[in-house]
Specification:
Elements: E1 4-11, H1 16-26, E2 38-47, H2 49-64, E3 69-78, E4 85-92, H3 94-104, E5 120-125, H4 129-138, E6 143-148, E7 150-157, E8 161-169
Length: about 180
């Protein structure tokens, strides 16, 4: 039975998604063009076709249980020395992402995390220290605000990378 590699994430909207992805590619991150700009809710996991259908049903239930919210991205952070990652940090929307991720990681998508969950947007990964330092400094002043109205199920293809397969709309945000 063929297996799919999937992930679940909040997509960063345009124009910021392209700006951050282009920056990541310009740094020499060879994976940048195959990874849409996002906030991970669940890391890559392999599922069977039957498991995929169960995941979709589960994600529908999760989406129906959560309201939309606002994310404010501002400044940079890093996971070094534990992991060679530089990211844009969330200044708002952290707790909403944490609750959403916790619910996503239940049932058919229950996974053990290698590291504690920390919502972020990766801008440099597995690069040498000078390029990681550059990313940290270059985007220290980055800032944007957007509303999260849905999250996505992504599928991985060896040739084209990660692609959104289905959106899961959240309930309307409270006024």
């Amino acid at each position: 039975m063929p297996v799919s590699t999937i992930g679940v994430a909040v997509a960063i909207p345009q124009p910021w998604a392209s700006d951050l992805q282009d920056y990541r590619a310009a740094l020499g991150d060879e994976t940048a063009t195959k990874i849409p700009t996002h906030i991970t809710l669940i890391p890559p996991v392999q599922v069977s076709p039957a498991g995929y259908a169960a995941c979709e049903r589960h994600l529908l239930d999760v989406a129906e249980a959560h309201r939309g919210f606002t994310v404010h991205l501002r400044g940079t952070g890093t996971f070094r020395p534990v992991s060679p990652v530089v990211f844009v940090a969330l200044a708002r929307g952290i707790s909403e992402c944490e609750r959403l991720a916790e619910d996503v990681r239940q049932g058919p998508l229950e996974v053990d995390l290698t590291y504690p969950f920390h919502p972020h947007v990766t801008i440099a990964h597995h690069l040498d220290d000078p390029r990681l330092d550059r990313a940290f400094d270059d985007l220290a002043g980055f800032e944007c605000v957007f509303d999260v109205t849905e999250f996505h199920l992504y599928c991985h293809d060896v040739d084209s990378g990660w692609r959104p397969d289905r959106a899961f709309p959240l309930r309307p945000a409270e006024a």
